[in-house]
Write a structure and sequence with these properties.
0% strand; 77% helix; binds MU-OXO-diiron; 6 helices
Length: 171
């Protein structure tokens, strides 16, 4: 059973996952507005992943008999100067999520809550994969170049990363 402080920590993480979901949905519709269907499909898929991350935490809290808090979500940015800017922001965002997962892991380990510590290991691996995925895409964008027809090839390249794990891609 989770105590109140532990529940607050996990509910705060739920709020971060909800924001991530909205951020990628916003990026998806920005990409549609730029006529970049591959980038839009990638971010839509990533938005769905974030919903999954959020629900996994919700399910865990319910399993422990705790109360899930469904809070509001801040409005994400709506406009991006370039594909590069969107992916740079996505990577920075994932790095901040990794830090918050690490802080959660530290706290539950310190409290000797091994069940929750174990549950959170899935997120540790997931964050590692996501950071590698976004970094790999940023590297490809840099190689192709975003000028002129580059946007066409980048759009195709980004689409290939739907459902990919960054770890496989970077090996
Ligand atoms: Fe749920 Fe992208 O971290």
């Amino acid at each position: 059973m989770l105590n109140d402080a532990q529940l607050t920590r996990l509910n705060d993480q739920i709020a971060l996952e909800a924001y991530s979901s909205r951020l990628y949905l916003s990026m998806a519709f920005w990409a549609h507005s730029q006529r970049l269907p591959g980038v839009a499909a990638f971010f839509t898929n990533h938005h769905e992943h974030e919903e999954e991350h959020m629900h996994r935490l919700m399910d865990y809290i319910v399993q422990t008999g705790g109360r899930v808090v469904v809070g509001g979500v801040d409005e994400p940015p709506q406009e991006f100067k370039s594909i590069t800017e969107a992916f740079d922001l996505a990577l920075k965002h994932e790095q901040s999520i990794s830090s918050s997962i690490n802080a959660l892991v530290d706290a539950f380990l310190e409290e000797k809550d091994h069940a929750t510590y174990n549950f959170l290991q899935w997120y540790v691996s997931e964050q590692h994969e996501e950071e590698a995925l976004f970094q790999g895409i940023i590297d490809s964008i840099e190689l192709i170049g975003e000028d002129g027809r580059g946007r066409f090839w980048i759009d195709k390249e980004v689409r290939k990363n739907i459902g990919a794990s960054g770890v496989e891609n970077n090996q």
